[in-house]
Design brief:
mainly alpha, ADP-ribosylglycohydrolase fold, 59% helix, Ribosyl_crysJ1, Ribosyl_crysJ1_sf, ADP-ribosylglycohydrolase, magnesium
Length: 331
């Protein structure tokens, strides 16, 4: 499998996971259960009625804008990325925005600060930085050391909390590992993630270290443990589902991926079945599985239907990936 297939699998895998989870966002697991057999057979229309099937959200929109910036600049330029994020809000195109992202981008739009200072302060550890980090994993797939620094720079546009940044690093490092290595070894990946994340957030690193045990557990027991990782009494979810807090989001995505790394359908369906903030978790899971298995592992009928208000679908991602290979990686 060549690099092109894996990079395209990463970005389209994220978009398909995102669009598949979007209609079920915020639902408890028991309400999602009747749909599990059909989730990845075809997209369903969002219950709000405003979006056509296959619509993806801010998770993929912001990841997409990072990719476009990298291709245009042939480098990673956080200032340019911040401008592209601003345009999503200025053009009223953002879908499903999180509070920290919205407040941070509005600070930039209102000229209150630069991108270095716009991010939400410590204590705000949502999954908004992690959800878009796959793009940096692609850019720095051969350079894990610069990857860490670049992820933190891009994260700071909306998030300064160490947990949020560490979660983004874990996502990007997983993508980079899958693109870089010819043979997938889950124990090696867990070690890489632990060593990389522990320098930023020891709490998340210790949870990552527990993944081999979690994978062997009964699913219901593992999900209950993951859903409450790092969560204080005030933050506890109403049911055992995934909140927008970065630690459970990243761990559930890694757990689901490592349970069946070669099967895109099983990975994404498992993540969505958990309930809660399943759009972001499914987007990250889809990127993980797509980066390992390539574009042809993703259901073709879904690939052709991903869109952002009828635009920026498969053909767009195919074009960006080709430009990345030719102009950024010079291959």
């Amino acid at each position: 499998m060549d690099l092109y297939e894996r990079i395209l699998g990463t970005v389209v895998g994220q978009a398909v996971g995102d669009a598949s989870g979007f209609p079920f966002e915020g639902w408890p697991a028991n309400k999602i259960q009747p749909f599990l057999d059909t989730i990845l057979k075809d997209f369903i229309k969002h219950p709000c009625g405003l979006f056509q099937p296959g619509q993806y959200t801010d998770d993929t929109q912001m990841m997409r804008e990072i990719l476009v910036s990298i291709v245009e600049k042939q480098n990673l330029d956080p200032e340019d990325i911040a401008k592209k994020f601003m345009n999503l809000w200025l053009d009223n195109q953002i879908v499903g925005q999180g509070q920290s992202c919205r407040e941070s981008i509005l600070r930039l739009i209102n000229n209150e600060c630069t991108w270095m200072d716009s991010g939400a302060e410590e204590g705000r550890a949502g999954n908004g930085a992690a959800m878009r980090a796959a793009a940096v994993g692609i850019f720095n797939y051969k350079d894990p050391e610069n990857l860490l620094w670049n992820v933190i720079l891009v994260s700071r546009i909306t998030h300064k909390d160490a947990r949020a940044c560490a979660g983004a690093v874990a996502v990007a490092q997983t993508i980079a590992y899958n693109l870089r290595e010819s043979t997938f070894k889950s124990d090696k990946l867990v070690r890489i993630l632990y060593n990389s994340v522990t320098t930023i957030c020891e709490e998340l690193a210790l949870y990552i270290k527990e993944l081999p045990k979690l994978i062997k557990m009964n699913d219901d027991k593992a999900i209950k443990i993951i859903a409450h990782m790092g969560i204080t009494d005030e933050m506890k979810p109403e049911f055992h589902s995934i909140t927008p807090f970065v630690i459970p989001t990243v761990i559930i995505s890694l757990w689901s991926f490592l349970k069946s790394p070669l099967n895109y359908f099983d990975c994404v369906t498992r993540t969505i079945s958990v309930g809660g903030d399943v759009g972001t978790a499914a987007a990250i899971t889809g990127a993980f599985c797509g980066s390992l298995n390539g574009i042809y592992a993703i259901p073709d009928n879904l690939i052709r239907k991903i869109n952002d208000r009828g635009k920026f679908g498969f053909n767009f991602f195919e074009s960006v990936t080709k430009k990345m290979i030719q102009h950024v990686f010079k291959k």
